[in-house]
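Lecture 7 notes: from sequence to structure.

We start with a single chain of 208 residues. Read the sequence below before looking at the structure.
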Amino acid sequence: MSHDPPLSLFDYEALAEAKLDPALWDFFVAGADDGVTLAENRRAFERTLLRPRVLVDVSRIDMATTLLGAPVAAPVMIAPTGPHGALCEEGEVATVAAAGRAGLGAVIVNSSNRTIEEIGAAATRPLWMQLYLYPERERTAALLARAEAAGVGAIVLTADSPRFGRKERSLRSEDRFDWPAAANLAGLPPATPGRSAARRRPGTISTG
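Now the structure, written as tokens:
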């Protein structure tokens, strides 16, 4: 592989694949089943074209805006993307710190590897939190209370996972990875036995 400095997201992707445990890499890049939606998502970005403008003043280009009243350097936020602690010891604390240095906000997964209190202390730009609704309302309420106290500005409700995607690439991987603990869920009211993500009543969302 080339040792030239990375110039694009695809270059960073190649570097990540070379460094990560194969099972971990498979988890992060896999789409569900045959990967049809994953491929279509990439094609959708390719169909978005830039409209060139010429003979206009470009001496000052400013992409700054606000998100729910909070200033950001560009209309971009880091999405909730699974266990950051599997990629970096500092986990989501490092993620929001890096986002802040870029002037951007971040959305943290509710089952983060670092607590929302730790993450909130490191955030300098808008911090939002993804939320799966637990069958046990007290678990959801406790997590929301902690998020509000930690300075989370908005909740991003995830409602597309009554069943988690069947990632065939991950299933085919012969390697296994020891996932870091979801520290943010520690101390919440206990989950009801038998009501896990794979077996819960219709209409509910859960990662517990």
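The domain at 9-55+63-185 is CATH 3.20.20.70 (TIM Barrel). Keep this in mind for problem set 3.
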